[in-house]
């Protein structure tokens, strides 16, 4: 890790400001690695999840679903591993009342009631958990993800969208409790985006983890107009019902279409082939094929391309190598920070 260590020495006097936007299981991997490189991190986390423990809590208690927030808090926390293991513990299926619930989700839900909103609850919990950085829910209110499919039909709810078995054409979000109220991000979220050296999108599901954040009008506008370098960390695998047979350029094209203009500056692309028959398709049933490269298409969209072996294979799953991705993000942040100071 000489490259990473070199970066840390260079930025000792100034921590680059990095905003990472998304949700899902890929986000904590990148955040963990960025922590090790002495970055000033703000994680903006989707609040449109309605599945699993998060969805059940959301149905019982009128709070923003806490699952992705919980995982990000753990990724950035300086608390001992024993505490974090308890925070992440999920009750067994035979515990009828608590079955499937993570303790951390229950704590976040409780604090949301105590503080009367999710944003203040997460800030208080961040201090309690000694989080190195900021964790901001994308919205202070529960949001519902809506989708239109290529056949013209529409449906609401992240779980329903991912299990519809159709190709998604576009998504948008609405306020869960008040359809007439325009969803918005709170001021600290917008300020973090405006002041960042780089804004990182992904990895994560294009339509159900990344775009739900960008479809919050003032948040999407902040990303579209920020002076920061906007980086898209392209997924390694395509996803059932979302990005089947997509190239890397197709992913960016969808982002541009949703925000109304070319706004992605740099795309990180994995070029290492996933070995045949390595992926356990039963365990990772949403993953289909490896994303196809289209460097000419990316350049036509105005994107710089950084390609490398970003692959990390374990447990018969396909993941990003967090250290390699974080090193590229830090390097871009340093370059952007230097240009800003000039």
Automatic annotation (TrEMBL):
UniProt keyword Nucleotide-binding present: no
Keywords: Cytoplasm
One function term, GO molecular function aspect: LPPG:FO 2-phospho-L-lactate transferase activity
This protein's GO CC annotations: cytoplasm
Subcellular location per the Swiss-Prot or TrEMBL entry: Cytoplasm
Matches recorded under InterPro entries: CofD, CofD-like_dom_sf, Gluconeogen_factor
Domain of life: Bacteria
Single GO BP term: regulation of cell shape
Major site of localization recorded for this protein: cytoplasm
Signal peptide range: none
The protein's role, per its UniProt record: Required for morphogenesis under gluconeogenic growth conditions.
Family membership: Belongs to the gluconeogenesis factor family.
Protein name: Putative gluconeogenesis factor
Lineage: Bacteria, Bacillati, Bacillota, Bacilli, Lactobacillales
């Amino acid at each position: 890790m000489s490259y990473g260590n070199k970066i840390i020495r260079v930025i000792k006097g100034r921590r680059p400001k990095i905003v990472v936007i998304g949700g899902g299981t890929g986000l904590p991997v990148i955040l963990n690695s960025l922590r090790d490189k002495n970055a000033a991190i703000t994680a903006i986390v989707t609040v449109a999840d309605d599945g699993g423990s998060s969805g059940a809590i959301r149905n019982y208690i009128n709070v923003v679903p806490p699952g992705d927030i919980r995982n990000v808090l753990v990724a950035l926390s300086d608390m001992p591993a024993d505490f974090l293991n308890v925070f992440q513990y999920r009750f067994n299926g035979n515990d009828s009342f608590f079955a499937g619930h993570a303790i951390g989700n229950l704590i976040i839900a409780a604090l949301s009631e105590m503080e009367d909103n999710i944003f203040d609850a997460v800030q208080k919990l961040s201090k309690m958990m000694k989080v190195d950085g900021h964790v901001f829910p994308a919205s202070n209110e529960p949001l519902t993800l809506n989708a239109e499919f290529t056949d013209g039909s529409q449906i609401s709810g992240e779980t329903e969208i991912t299990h519809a078995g159709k190709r998604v054409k576009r998504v948008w979000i609405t306020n869960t409790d008040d359809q007439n109220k325009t969803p918005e991000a709170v001021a600290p979220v917008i300020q973090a985006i405006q002041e960042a050296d780089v804004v990182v999108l992904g990895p994560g599901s294009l339509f159900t983890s990344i775009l739900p954040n960008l479809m919050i009008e003032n948040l999407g506008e902040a990303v579209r107009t920020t002076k920061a370098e906007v980086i898209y960390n392209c997924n390694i695998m395509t996803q059932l019902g979302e990005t089947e047979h997509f190239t890397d350029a197709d992913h960016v094209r969808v982002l541009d279409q949703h925000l109304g203009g070319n706004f992605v500056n740099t795309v990180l692309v994995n070029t290492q082939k996933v070995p045949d028959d390595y992926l356990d398709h039963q365990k990772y049933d949403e993953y289909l094929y490896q994303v196809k490269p289209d460097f000419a298409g990316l350049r036509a969209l105005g994107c710089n391309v950084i390609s490398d072996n970003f692959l990390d294979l374990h447990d018969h799953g396909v993941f990003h190598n967090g250290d390699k991705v974080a090193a590229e993000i830090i390097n871009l942040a340093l370059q952007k920070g230097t240009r800003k100071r000039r």
